Amino acid sequence: MLGVMYVFYVHRQVSRWRLVLRDGDAFPDVTTAEQWQRTRIRTAADTNVDVRDDIASRGYCLFAITATFEDLNRDISTHGKRKERQPLASLAIRGRRFDLMQATEHDVPELVQLLADDALGADRESDDLVPYLKAFRQIDAITGHLLLTVRDDSAKMVGTIQLTLLPSLARQGALRLHIEAVRIVGGARGIGLGSALFTWAHEYGRQQGATVAQLTSDKSRTNAHRFYERLGYNPSHVGYKYWL
Predict the structure, then answer these.
(1) 89-231 sits in which CATH class?
(2) pLDDT per position as a tens digit, 80-108
């Protein structure tokens, strides 16, 4: 290992992108040598172990120099331990406390159970967590998505809601708050939790600059329709779906 040398390159057009290869290895098929300027060569001992591991697993290491000190401090504070989550908000309802937390990958199995515990969800959800984990990672990586869990004072998950901020050219460039995948477990219904959750979601949208909240609901969910209309939602549009 110590006899291996590593060559560092910088992209000729976009200099923040860097590529590292083992000396003598060919460039990946998706790029060409003409796109890269060689900057230096290092021994294995002088090359970061994460870079070496990345090259060992896929043949190259590609990264962009865009990190901030905030990113560094966050990684330092969470390195080697599970991230401690703090509630984004706490709702007090009938003497009970409900914490709203940004979901983590650890929550995915419980979230899937919530989605499936429903007349429609029972038929369309699956026990295979792989597609859900993939979807969660995409949601978690994109700015403007907020997937929330709702936990009671015993830390049991009793609800969830997904909020998405959608920029739009229409309505003078309005930012929309799209609300979906709302679930409240049976034991937490009828106490005002759903209304309080929507009140928080609306305020979150306002703080982000959104001027309208929108959602769609299956035609069969008549109880949900009455709930939304009590909150002030207007059934002004007809929604369509086309399966790809």
Answers:
(1) alpha beta
(2) 544 456 899 999 999 999 999 999 988 99
